[in-house]
């Protein structure tokens, strides 16, 4: 990039740097955004297809989940990555609707492209899109239906809708019931924290054999075979300190001159361990979960006392055990009291698909539960886990927000109709942007119809005519009919839709407002060497934009 000053050209950017500006930059960014949306569009809806993602080492992921597909894809283009962020935000906030949000963002860019060609300015488009998004939120609020947390039937419908089209579909009745039971079990005054629901995958058996353990499943075995494998009415001690001989803080050498002295040393160590075990026994502990190690001699003493002990339990398991059994995690065995112990009706070691695990069950009002998901192969179990995670997210969101919408493209058609009416009341060129927004939202029912092998135009026309009387009319992808979605039990949380529209609009507006793409140096503002163009942050390095901006050829090569 150079500028003429008198007869002397002035160099501003280095010769190697790349710059794309004006319409070329807008066109390139819009094409990248549309390409991302197109890559996941065929996965949308109950008849959506799956994608197989293979990395350089041969690992395979087969999934229908939008955010997983985009996360695993090797996307370099900077604008394309902004669309991927839409899916990631959607996943974090609500857990479902990741594909919808990306498809809407891509369609907003596509509609904008036509208007930009008609010389409508990008900032006018941005303003119109923002007005449309604000109106869309109000329209969705108007058609939302309140739900009660006691209404398990509608919660199961919500869980089941989130699973539809994913690998878990055949057993969605059982899985949606397990999801609702687990969310209601861990719900408290502060809402629902799905971290308290541990999802344990087991390869082997059928999906129908999945179950909910009202308590905690710890993926460890008891440390000594002479310990009991079953303890009923168990008082449970939770320790985050080792049951081992205390080491000195400082490096010390002890010279032993006499075998008796060595004997005393060993006796002292044994005495220390014995005292620790006696302390646990004295407070009435039947089961000990230890986050650190347990000395061999201590294991022997614990087994003598009939105490079941587990060592090196994960921190997350300890947290779940404390929440579930009502116990407190203790850092010093000398300080443990009977009040610190938790309680469970039974603690058992039993095998699951060949692996021994400890079940802590029969807990009064378990506030931490474990979902055991089974499936024939690893890929099947992984996909079921993703479907269940989405379901957990939507049920949690519904309990927090308390409002739902019909599915099957119904809210999108209602939005499009409402926004076209709203556009007539808006003066200026923004009106065209609002109409374009309405057309963009239509992409969801149109894609549902296309993926189900139906005629998208016929489906859209019929949906619009029915929607004028009934805002719950949506498309049944299996029969091709337009039916009442609420009666059919196809419902999703209001938040899934509002979040998708908001994030898609923000990403589209951000991309549309870019008119210049310049390969930057180190954006972190770090003290990297200015001459080193091939440093990771430099223009030619893999992390810089030179590598990521080789147009659609290099940038999107890993995507198509």
Automatic annotation (TrEMBL):
Nucleotide-binding as UniProt keyword: yes
Ranges annotated as biased composition (Gly residues): 537-560
Keywords for the protein's UniProt record, in alphabetical order: ATP-binding, Chaperone, Nucleotide-binding
Region (Disordered): 523-560
Domain of life: Archaea
SUPFAM superfamilies for the chain: GroEL apical domain-like (SSF52029), GroEL equatorial domain-like (SSF48592), GroEL-intermediate domain like (SSF54849)
GO molecular function: ATP binding; ATP hydrolysis activity; ATP-dependent protein folding chaperone; unfolded protein binding
Pfam family membership, one: Cpn60_TCP1
Alphabetized PROSITE patterns for the sequence: TCP1_1, TCP1_2, TCP1_3
InterPro entries associated with the record: Chaperone_TCP-1 (IPR017998), Chaperonin_TCP-1_CS (IPR002194), Cpn60/GroEL/TCP-1 (IPR002423), GroEL-like_apical_dom_sf (IPR027409), GROEL-like_equatorial_sf (IPR027413), TCP-1-like_intermed_sf (IPR027410), TCP-1_chaperonin (IPR053374), thermosome_alpha (IPR054827)
Family: Belongs to the TCP-1 chaperonin family.
Entry protein name: Thermosome subunit 1
Organism, scientific name: Natronomonas moolapensis (strain DSM 18674 / CECT 7526 / JCM 14361 / 8.8.11)
Gene this chain is encoded by: ths1
């Amino acid at each position: 990039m150079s500028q003429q000053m008198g007869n002397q050209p002035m160099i501003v950017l280095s010769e190697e740097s790349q710059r794309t500006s004006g319409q070329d930059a807008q066109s390139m960014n819009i094409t990248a955004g549309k390409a991302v949306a197109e890559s996941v569009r065929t996965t949308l809806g109950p008849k959506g297809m799956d994608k197989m993602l293979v990395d350089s080492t041969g690992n395979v992921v087969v999934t229908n989940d939008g955010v997983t597909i985009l996360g695993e894809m090797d996307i370099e283009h900077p604008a394309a990555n902004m669309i991927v962020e839409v899916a990631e935000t959607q996943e974090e906030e609500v857990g479902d609707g990741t594909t919808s949000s990306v498809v809407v963002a891509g369609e907003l860019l596509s509609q904008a492209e036509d208007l930009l060609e008609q010389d409508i300015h990008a900032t006018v488009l941005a303003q119109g899109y923002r007005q449309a998004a604000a109106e869309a939120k109000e329209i969705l609020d108007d058609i939302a239906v309140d739900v009660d947390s006691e209404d398990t039937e509608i919660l199961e419908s919500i869980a089941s809708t989130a699973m539809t089209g994913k690998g878990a579909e055949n057993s969605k009745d059982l899985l949606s019931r397990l999801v609702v039971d687990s969310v209601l079990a861990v719900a408290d005054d502060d809402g629902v924290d799905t971290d308290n629901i541990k999802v344990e995958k087991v390869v082997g058996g059928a999906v129908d054999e999945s179950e909910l353990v009202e308590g905690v499943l710890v993926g460890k075995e008891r440390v000594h075979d002479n310990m009991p494998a079953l303890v009923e009415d168990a008082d449970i001690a939770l320790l985050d300190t080792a049951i081992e001989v205390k080491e000195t803080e400082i490096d010390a050498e002890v010279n032993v001159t006499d075998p008796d002295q060595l004997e005393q040393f060993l006796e002292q160590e044994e005495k220390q361990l014995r005292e620790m075990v006696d302390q646990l026994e004295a407070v009435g502990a039947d089961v000990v979960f230890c986050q650190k190690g347990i000395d061999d001699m201590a294991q022997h003493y614990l087994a003598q006392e009939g105490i079941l002990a587990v060592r090196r339990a994960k921190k997350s398991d300890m947290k779940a055990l404390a929440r579930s059994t009502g116990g407190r995690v203790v850092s010093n065995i000398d300080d443990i009291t009977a009040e610190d112990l938790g309680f469970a009706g039974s603690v058992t070691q039993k095998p699951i698909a060949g692996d021994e695990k400890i079940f802590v069950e029969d807990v009064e009002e378990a506030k931490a539960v474990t979902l055991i998901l089974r499936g024939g192969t690893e890929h099947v179990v992984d996909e079921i886990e993703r479907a269940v995670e989405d379901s957990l997210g939507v049920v949690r969101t519904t309990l927090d927000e308390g409002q739902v919408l019909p599915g099957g493209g119904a809210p999108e058609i209602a939005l499009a109709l409402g926004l076209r009416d709203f556009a007539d009341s808006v003066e200026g060129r923004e009106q065209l942007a609002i109409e374009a927004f309405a057309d963009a939202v239509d992409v969801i029912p149109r894609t549902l119809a296309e993926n189900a092998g139906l005629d998208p135009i016929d489906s859209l026309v019929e949906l619009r005519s029915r929607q004028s009387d009934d805002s719950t009319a949506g498309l049944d992808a299996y029969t091709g009919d337009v039916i009442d979605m609420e009666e059919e039990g196809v419902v999703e949380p209001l938040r899934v839709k509002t979040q998708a529209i908001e994030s898609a609009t923000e990403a589209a507006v951000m991309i549309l407002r870019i008119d210049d793409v310049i390969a930057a140096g180190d954006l972190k503002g770090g003290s990297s060497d200015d001459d080193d163009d091939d440093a990771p942050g430099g223009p030619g390095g893999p992390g810089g934009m030179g590598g990521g901006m080789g147009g659609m050829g290099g940038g999107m090569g890993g995507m198509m």
